[in-house]
Amino acid sequence: MTTVSSDTLIVGQQATGTDITVPVIRFTGTGNGPSVYIQANIHGAEVQGNAVIHHLVELFNCHPPKGDVCLVPMANPLGINQKSGEFTLGRFDPITGENWNRQYHFDASLIDQLAQSHLNAPEAEVAAALRQAMGVQIDAKLASPFGVKSGQHLALRLQKMALQADIVLDLHTGPISARHLYVPSYAEERAHLFNIPLNIVIPSDFAGALDEASFSPWWQLSDAMAARGRALPVLVDAFTLELGSQEYLNVASARDDALGIARYLQSRGVLDPFELTLPKTTQYACSLDNYRAIYSPCGGQIEYLAPLGEPVSAEHPLARIWHFDALATSLQQSRELRLPVDVIPVLHFASASVRQGTELYKVLTHYYRLSGSDVS
Amino acid sequence: MTTVSSDTLIVGQQATGTDITVPVIRFTGTGNGPSVYIQANIHGAEVQGNAVIHHLVELFNCHPPKGDVCLVPMANPLGINQKSGEFTLGRFDPITGENWNRQYHFDASLIDQLAQSHLNAPEAEVAAALRQAMGVQIDAKLASPFGVKSGQHLALRLQKMALQADIVLDLHTGPISARHLYVPSYAEERAHLFNIPLNIVIPSDFAGALDEASFSPWWQLSDAMAARGRALPVLVDAFTLELGSQEYLNVASARDDALGIARYLQSRGVLDPFELTLPKTTQYACSLDNYRAIYSPCGGQIEYLAPLGEPVSAEHPLARIWHFDALATSLQQSRELRLPVDVIPVLHFASASVRQGTELYKVLTHYYRLSGSDVS
Amino acid sequence: MTTVSSDTLIVGQQATGTDITVPVIRFTGTGNGPSVYIQANIHGAEVQGNAVIHHLVELFNCHPPKGDVCLVPMANPLGINQKSGEFTLGRFDPITGENWNRQYHFDASLIDQLAQSHLNAPEAEVAAALRQAMGVQIDAKLASPFGVKSGQHLALRLQKMALQADIVLDLHTGPISARHLYVPSYAEERAHLFNIPLNIVIPSDFAGALDEASFSPWWQLSDAMAARGRALPVLVDAFTLELGSQEYLNVASARDDALGIARYLQSRGVLDPFELTLPKTTQYACSLDNYRAIYSPCGGQIEYLAPLGEPVSAEHPLARIWHFDALATSLQQSRELRLPVDVIPVLHFASASVRQGTELYKVLTHYYRLSGSDVS
Amino acid sequence: MTTVSSDTLIVGQQATGTDITVPVIRFTGTGNGPSVYIQANIHGAEVQGNAVIHHLVELFNCHPPKGDVCLVPMANPLGINQKSGEFTLGRFDPITGENWNRQYHFDASLIDQLAQSHLNAPEAEVAAALRQAMGVQIDAKLASPFGVKSGQHLALRLQKMALQADIVLDLHTGPISARHLYVPSYAEERAHLFNIPLNIVIPSDFAGALDEASFSPWWQLSDAMAARGRALPVLVDAFTLELGSQEYLNVASARDDALGIARYLQSRGVLDPFELTLPKTTQYACSLDNYRAIYSPCGGQIEYLAPLGEPVSAEHPLARIWHFDALATSLQQSRELRLPVDVIPVLHFASASVRQGTELYKVLTHYYRLSGSDVS
Ligand SMILES: [Zn+2]
Ligand SMILES: [Zn+2]
Ligand SMILES: [Zn+2]
Ligand SMILES: [Zn+2]
């Protein structure tokens, strides 16, 4: 039998003295399954993941997980509660501009040392040693007499929980966006299980995001062991799911993404097999360096023409840029934005008014059908 | 024959010394029709009106207006260019919080004086005197040794152009919004011509907006003359059109609103009659005090349930407010927002995360079918 | 003997479900003195009043007040905790632009009714009736099925406490500012007691601020009674104190302002007489319509030249406006800002870069020595 | 004889179609001296450097430079003109959060290639080749069919000018700050000439700032040549000067910093020797890893106690953090911030209200007297 409990974790303190807290829901595993950590809404405007967690709570109540599960909805109160005009200014710290999802910890120098010292240790012992070493570093950082940044207070406390898990899922959304998934390349064969149409396959680099902070140590450890002649699998899976558009909550449609996650969790042995009915989805993928941003070539007001999630041929217009300052003049009143390659638009900017250099779109280029995909 | 010209008007200066300018397009009238002033985008995120002006330019090129027409797209460069995160922070001056559309001028003390001094003057003379007196006041304000606010530099310079017109249209949008129209009650019989589904009938008060600044002097003059026994019609018509949602540009659909405006202009003698094909639209109206804002009773994340522009019966849910901090607790996880009266939702808030007291919806209550409406 | 207690009052709820609370400190009066309400920091960047309240707590512990005292430091958590860059964006609601100190309640239609119904009632009964009537209105507003704005949730709950007091002090600061005091004209003879150098004498209008919401009902009641032949004094005193510059905390210097308040409270019978040593201060005053804002005549970067709080003769430069875009050109590289009248600069803008129309200074004009002032 | 000219450079375009431009002032060198590039105000609130450029223009008019000089005041119009409340939000792009001074270009892979191909080339030829190669890369970036970011449009166009210079100075300020200088370690012996009290000695890393983008290629080239046995000096000097506090303009005091720059330029042969009278200044330095940020251990309101620029002994309080929510409770009402090491505070945060993790101070630790310093 599973037990579920809920608690709040203090992750900061406001100028007024109010504690900043996040809700933490824990299911105790019924058996020996892998442990799972899932969080949502670290970017303040990206609310849809909370609805997915809502469905996962219901699902785990019916289908008890075999490993421990830790769920953190509304993971970033500072980001969620920060408004500027009618929108949530939730992507970066409004004081420093630092992205809330670039402040997790990983010190790569640990890895070689550990590969050396635990070259012949049993897998479980290696894993425990890496978790232990990273935990010590995180605690030391939090205890520094010089202090740490607000974003690190939050990120490091979340990471201490995520660090204990074998599977880490970070639920985001894009601005105006189709659903897409960041897949570490070692786990590409499992990506299709989530049933997400667009997939970006990423390398083992660390730039501060939670998925990277969760898989990079284990991936680099696997590589370091391999260099020493030992085949050690990457012991942790971590994915970032982008569940559509920001500032949009649709609890009914969140169920499909919860079911995709459940299918993935079944494949990893967290959940027992049971029937899951998922919509048929055509799945595409490309590598991270083929996932390209397109910046506006000029200022103007934008009609976003290309539907998200569907292939667009080279030289087909993605957007029309209007120059309403040129009405009734001989100047060009609008121009089309076209690319020299076939693309699938993944997301576009949230505003209709852009200056030169605004990121208008992100697109898959050199994309291919994801292996394992449902559709023939 | 009509002539069209375009120019830029300086409406301010940046800290860096750059002039702040707006485009001004002028059609010279072919005959003795009323003069028209139309502006768009005084709120920086409300771009759709620019596309309507684009269609009006094309339309006036084919169908020359009989009176002079002045068109100002992108009327507020400061608002349009001010971003905060991915959205335009364009509703109020980011320094002071003052709404860009509350800074026009009207000094009601003029009216009684003028009614007295011109009680028996011909209509044209009365009109010229009021325009003259208001122009003098605006110029004096701009020339004050103490200076005027940034918002007034903009508003007063726009108003000097609008002041010359017999018809003033100010093109806006709501946040996430159905199309709606602010109608001064003396002009209610003409409102249906715009073919806008939702209509709010307003009194002669002045709170600083362009429509009010344009009709209030003439309305109050009409009243002051009436009190002295002279029947003087309200000589100026002014409307605020709200053309859907902010941050959204759709040039094709803007054509319908341009045609609605053309139909109204035909009825006023600005355009000669020609065939206009407008979609059939059910039109509702209510008075301003029955146009109600609904503020969130608590904090939470919102599913906006009620479709905009359609009647919702009393006690039918408009929104569901989620408390994802209560997942896996015994606390209430969501609640519905209901109202004790029948309403038509006009617009809703742009973000899914709201604190207690956020304006969630604006709704028509005690609404009725607009007279003259197309639909039987 | 006095007793002191502290509590927190819920004034709102965040999107994440966290209650928004303010601290409330209450001293129970030892005798029959007037009751007092003092709050600070309703504008988020204006922190110095909190330090004054700190000193008042210490002072009341030594010198028990005879009437009940209610103290609310950090009265606006939403404003205090809202950062944009390195500064507190605390003057207005970041969603709507509405000033946090313009959302208090007063319905003037109450007054005539009450003057009529209580024309011959004893003073205490009149006062109780007005407090009762206003409390009922505030409760009804808060209970509306349509809800109220975030700023009203805060303001109305604070006002319910302030409404019970005979003396209301609202502690603010300017941007970069000399200390100044807003004085309702009926209380001008008492203003000097606060020992604040610059004083602005205001009429009985209501525009939504706490001081106005506190004195206007009583002032208008006094006038309405007078019109009916009864001499009823204004039963409540209310002042807004501006204690220097925002974003600046100096606890030691706050003591002088606490002593000024104590001297005023002694004069009203809240505190017993005891020796108070206050610095000698030259005190000036002018009426509200002579308290003038000066808006920048152009864009540029500013050297603020005139020391705050000291008389500046007509045509003496207050600031130099630099045009660094004109370096090495034949254009004007800087210009001086001068006024045609003698002034005392009270405050200036917080930034060095201004667009045309930015409020550069506020100044006393047609100022005079405050009566009762210490200095011969 | 020198000639001076001024021009404007287009560095972007607003949504409204307005070009974004920066002023560019050029002095033609009288002889064979090194060329110089100096810019100011790339961070929008940091205005004081513009006044230094003003003095340099006057100085160069009297004392013609021997090499070409390019001066760019107000280098970032987007940053300067972006207000949020009464302050300039000028440190990062308000859309993306990216620091305006982290977007310059350097592709380190160029260097090894160039060291190989030009191992025996004359110095001037090597320099020309590196400038040529970097220019080609920058042009290619600007011409990408995918576009570049707004911040890169600005940075790359500025960098194309800076790239031509032998000496690059980037004029900044801190938030509330003492004057300090970032010194590449190879140039430490020249640092004292600027007469700036606090100096931070930095390594050859590249993180996107202009000083790094200017010296890193030449420094790494020198190292790469050294590894191949050729002694090539670092051919470009680049410094970031931090000239006090942001949002503060003092043209008179800017003269001293202009004179410090002149003294440095004399030592490099840009200016002929002439008498310069500089104030005596005690100069300290530490290495970048000893330049430490201190983050607030809790939320609260801050009294900044330690004077900037002066040594503070270990355990001496730097600040007092107040908890005004704890007034009249048994909780701690304030705490002191102390460090376990001797420090010199360089700058502190601009606001008095901070959440946990806000950067309160930056301090020199393990500091030492700068060599060459004036003071005995
Ligand atoms: Zn995200
Ligand atoms: Zn609008
Ligand atoms: Zn204030
Ligand atoms: Zn800087």
TrEMBL record, chains A, B, C, D:
Keyword Zinc: yes
Cofactor(s) annotated in UniProt: Zn(2+)
GO molecular function, one term: metal ion binding
Name the record gives this protein: Succinylglutamate desuccinylase/Aspartoacylase catalytic domain-containing protein
Organism of provenance: Ferrimonas sediminum
Succinylglutamate desuccinylase/Aspartoacylase catalytic domain segment(s): 32-266
Top-level taxon in the UniProt lineage: Bacteria
Keywords annotated in UniProt: Hydrolase, Metal-binding, Zinc
One Pfam family of this chain: AstE_AspA_cat
Keyword Glycoprotein: no
